[in-house]
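Minimal example, chain plus magnesium ion.
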Amino acid sequence: MDTLHITDVAPRDGLQNQSVHLSTEAKLGLIERLVKAGVRSVEATSFVSPKAVPQMADAGEIVPRVIARWPQLRSSVLVPNLKGLERAHAAGAQEIAVVLSATETMNRKNINMGLDEALRVSEQTLAQAHALGLRTRAYVAVAFDCPFEGETPLREVLRLAARMYAADAGEVVIADTIGSAAPGEVRRRIAALRDVVPLERLAMHLHDTRGLGAANAWAALEAGVRRFDASVGGIGGCPFAPGAAGNLATEDLVLMAERSGLPTGISLDGLLDAVDFAEVQLERPLGGRSIAWLRRQRAKRLESEESLRQRGYTQFEEEKP
Ligand code: HMG
Ligand code: MG
């Protein structure tokens, strides 16, 4: 059956821009809840400059602990350059993601390199990662609009995606960094992208700034994409892209997919536990567009289980969405 592959990027994208900085233990607590929910792939952290993103300063400690505790979990880490790769490899990372933006200004703001240099460094980092036997992903960020340069020309997105595929990136991740895409444009861009990157190697990374994250995911799904990034509770955003709000929430994506007959292997109740946990840690309300409804369903179910329990029943199954 057709299955959706979801990478939960909350531990990296979700936490990199929070005013509350989580402890290493709390980050592991979040990953633990994701694993319990059935998530099989996460982006665990990033090996970037701790001056640029202090929230990710404990990357070297996170990676070995994640791998030791959940050896079956696919965990990727973001690296912006060869130094990041070196640190990630030393920590035992098995998969890395490079980040290339499709405009000159976004690369400069994000990783302090022009586009040509960012492309060269991404290719070098991918080659070196492959030589070390690591799996790889390559982000093509601002693939729809750039907060500094406006609409990103499709031909530039195609050129960079093709270069990342030629560099043998295991997944080429098309990112709507500021959540400005709409379904028609997603369909149009994926239709062109599938000519330069095989569909099974394409992934979508959507932000939900305008409430169109799930609609955009649906457009990508209909265009044949089966690999998606999402972030539990909808947390996330690039600190160097003004207007970048949270990611498409994992719970919204799972609800939409499961209701549409596409299994994800992920439990919505489990995701709700992860959202509850993240809310306590980050000290603010979280959750995607479906959160209020999901919580009401859970409350109703718990109520009816309690009444059954009082009548002597003990076995309950999680209800399908
Ligand atoms: P720089 O200042 O140009 O770096 O920063 P540099 O090479 O000149 O080195 C300066 C100092 O940083 C040196 O240390 C280096 O050793 C150190 P010093 O001698 O001053 O003590 N350094 C590093 N330290 C740790 N890890 C490294 C590293 N590299 C150099 N990897 C740099 C360039 C790329 C490091 C910096 O700009 C940076 O870290 N940027 C991080 C950007 C970031 O994390 N952005 C958010 C993630 S991307 C995103 O969110 C988008 C995404 O979600 C997709 C989407 O939605 O579009 C993926
Ligand atoms: Mg992002």
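The first strand starts at residue 5 and ends at 8. DSSP finds twelve helices and ten strands in the chain.
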